[in-house]
Amino acid sequence: MNADDIEVIEANTPETLEIHYRIRFEVYCLERGFEPYDRFEQGMESDHYDKVAAHFIARSKRTGEWLGACRIVAGKIEDLPVSHHVRIDDIPQNPGWLGEVSRLCVVKSRAREAGHHESSVMLSLLSAARAWSLRHDLGELVLLTTESVSRLLARFKILLTRIGPSCLLNGRRSPFLFNLLAPLPEHLSWCKKTKIVPPASVVGLN
């Protein structure tokens, strides 16, 4: 995995947020059919959680193509999107604020054209989410994801803890907890060095 080619930008300007929402529209509405495309007349998929979320976009530095996106919604477990879809059974007592990684998506065709596997883009986005969360004093992240994604992360020695039963939401998904304070495997030491690029320093966004 050539992680050095993938850069993750925090989407906190009107231009970068538009890129973020358009990636989501491409994946969730056009590619996967999870959301009806005619609900989003401007070709940008969003919901009310975006008002309080931190947003990220990933691109290939070599080709300049936008490859994927994700967001983090922080809050009490009952206020996170996951709690509206599935019962949470096993969460630490008095956990304080958690972060939920949601709308994690990769444009597979562009990733392949840039010479990346989907997992490379996903891991880069998750490492950026990890870095952002630690910087904002969040020790754990929640993911509502598929068994295939959890198995993929397990192959990279990123272990998730199941915290509730599965549900049907664009396929079968289960809630997992990612302990950000647990030591990373040595082969993922680059995650510790992940830097989130500000939009102002990205060529073509100025």
Highlighted features:
206 residues, alpha+beta, Aminopeptidase, eight-stranded mixed β-sheet, 4 helices, globular
Determine the mean pLDDT.
86
Tell me the radius of gyration: 16 Å
**Largest β sheet strand count, sense and barrel closure:** 8 strands, mixed
Shape: globular
User: What's the name of the CATH homologous superfamily?
Assistant: Gcn5-related N-acetyltransferase (GNAT)
Helix content: 10-25%
Quaternary: single chain
Explain what you see.
The chain has 206 residues and is an alpha+beta fold. It has a single domain (3-200), classed as 3-Layer(aba) Sandwich (Aminopeptidase). Helices cover 25% and strands 24% of the residues. 36% of the residues are buried. The mean pLDDT is 86.
Task: Give a brief outline of the structure.
The protein is of the alpha+beta class and 206 residues long. 25% of the residues lie in helices and 24% in strands. A hairpin with a 5-residue loop joins strand 2 (53-60) and strand 3.
Give the secondary structure arrangement, pairings included.
Elements (H helix, E strand, L loop, with lengths): L5 E5 L3 H18 L21 E8 L5 E10 L22 E9 L1 H6 L4 H18 L4 E6 L1 H9 L5 E2 L4 E2 L3 E8 L27
Parallel strand pairs: 4-5
Antiparallel strand pairs: 1-2, 2-3, 3-4, 5-8, 6-8, 7-8
